């Protein structure tokens, strides 16, 4: 812990330097399109190459004294683009260094940097590179390089090891998956402590000519297990309180409306209201697997086919001859088939067309159709 805190204090032993803070609106959109909204910069779309670059100069600061950077930005839509942090220093003005950023629960995790990443010299400019897909504008509120010292580094470590992680879809399989963005998870710290303890015991026993006792090793292992399990139990009890507060005493529909995907539930209920009595055949087309599976669940007891795919995660377009008159097609943020609203046609990439009637149109990205 002492070594970890010392490394992440950036050499600031007794006091933190002043933080460097840049408003989102102070960034310039080099590629892509958008506009400032108050102090926030809204990136509306990428360029034709599927990327965008936001750039700004910063007050010059020494990289070695600032080992961490933070991006305060949000991507409200279900699809989050890939982000890369890039920077330039005064010593090598013609070279740009970069490192990928990671999304955690809709926010960008703080990024820790060192000399191995090229985080050296005097930083003079930073960039945010955006690639991939955007289902909603990307909102950049601020870029911050916080000042840290031994005290704040120790406090950060304590907060990391006591952070409450609400349940998500993979929480039982990976209960503390978010810790991968931290410099040292409690699991890794416990394992290192156990290894040091066992090594110390073996060295002392050999030096003192003690007989080796396996019970000591097992005690060290079980003690570490108890530390990790205690944290898991505390997290479970906190989750129980949140779950009871959100769902206890509510009807089935009220529970869906209180869930994290309540907007999808509301949208699928609108779709169901526009359909005839069940069962009808619905082809649910979405690039995102979670949208397909969860959206199909909300549409039951209709006969929903949401599994046109080449692999568990990659959707493919259905063959045109598999669709028949009377079938319903729900396009939901889907790229494999295009709806030509002017001509009332479904259009495949190869040019194949099928006549349809529009049942419910929410936007260019979400539309319910019926084949003629």
Describe the structure.
The radius of gyration is 27 Å and the shape is globular. It has 7 helices and 22 strands. The chain has a 7-stranded mixed β-sheet with strand order 15-14-18-22-21-20-19, covered by helices on one side. Strands 1, 3, 4, 6, 11 and 13 form a 6-stranded antiparallel β-sheet that branches. The chain has a 5-stranded antiparallel β-sheet with strand order 2-5-12-7-8, with no helix packed on it. Helices cover 28% and strands 31% of the residues. The termini are far apart. It has 3 domains: 129 residues, Galactose-binding domain-like (Jelly Rolls), CATH 2.60.120; 61 residues; 117 residues, no CATH class. The protein is of the alpha+beta class and 372 residues long.
What share of residues are in beta strands?
A: 25-35%
CATH architecture assignment name of the largest domain: Sandwich
Query: Superfamily at the CATH H level of the largest domain?
Result: Galactose-binding domain-like
Spatial sequence of strands, sheet with the most strands: 15-14-18-22-21-20-19
Global mean pLDDT: 86
Uncertain spans, ≥5 residues at pLDDT below 50? Answer: none
Principal-axes geometry comes out as: globular
What structural class should be given to the helix and strand makeup? Answer: alpha+beta
Share of helix, binned: 25-40%
- Write the H/E string, N to C: HEEEEEEEEEEEEEHHHHHEHEEEEEEEE
Q: How many helices?
A: 7
CATH C-level category of the largest domain: Mainly Beta
Number of structural units classed as domains = 3
The number of strands is 22
The major pleated sheet works out as:
7 strands, mixed
């Amino acid at each position: 812990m002492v070594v970890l805190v010392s490394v992440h204090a950036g050499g600031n032993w007794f006091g933190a330097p002043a933080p460097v803070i840049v408003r989102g609106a102070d960034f310039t959109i080099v590629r892509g399109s958008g506009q400032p909204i108050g102090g926030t910069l809204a990136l509306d779309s990428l360029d034709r190459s599927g990327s965008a670059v936001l750039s700004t100069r910063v007050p010059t600061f020494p990289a070695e004294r600032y080992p961490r950077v933070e991006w305060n930005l949000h991507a409200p839509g279900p699809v989050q683009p890939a982000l890369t942090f890039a920077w330039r220093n005064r010593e090598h003005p013609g070279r740009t260094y970069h490192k990928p950023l990671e999304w955690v629960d809709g926010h960008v995790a703080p990024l820790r940097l060192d000399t191995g990443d090229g985080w050296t010299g005097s930083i003079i400019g930073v960039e945010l590179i955006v690639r991939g897909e955007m289902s909603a504008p990307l909102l950049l509120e601020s870029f911050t390089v916080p000042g840290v010292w031994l005290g704040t580094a120790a406090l950060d470590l304590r907060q990391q090891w006591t952070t409450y992680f609400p349940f998500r879809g993979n929480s039982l399989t990976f209960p503390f998956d978010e810790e991968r963005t931290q410099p040292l998870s409690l699991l890794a710290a416990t394992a290192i402590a156990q290894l040091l303890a066992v090594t110390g015991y073996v060295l002392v026993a050999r030096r003192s000519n003690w007989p080796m006792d396996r019970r000591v090793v097992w005690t060290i292992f079980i003690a570490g297990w108890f530390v990790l399990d205690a944290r898991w139990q505390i997290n479970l009890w906190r989750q129980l309180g949140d779950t009871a507060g959100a769902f206890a005493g509510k009807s089935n529909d009220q529970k869906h409306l209180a869930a994290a995907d309540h907007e999808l539930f509301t949208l699928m209920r609108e779709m169901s209201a526009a359909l005839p009595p069940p069962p009808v055949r619905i082809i649910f087309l979405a690039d995102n697997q979670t949208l397909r599976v969860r959206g199909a669940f909300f549409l039951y007891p209709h006969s929903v086919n949401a599994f046109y795919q080449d692999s568990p995660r990659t959707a493919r377009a259905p063959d045109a001859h598999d669709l028949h008159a009377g079938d319903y097609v729900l396009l939901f943020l889907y790229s494999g088939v295009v709806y030509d609203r002017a001509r009332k046609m479904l259009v495949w990439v190869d040019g194949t067309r099928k006549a349809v009637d529009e049942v419910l149109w929410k936007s260019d990205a979400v539309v319910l159709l019926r084949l003629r």
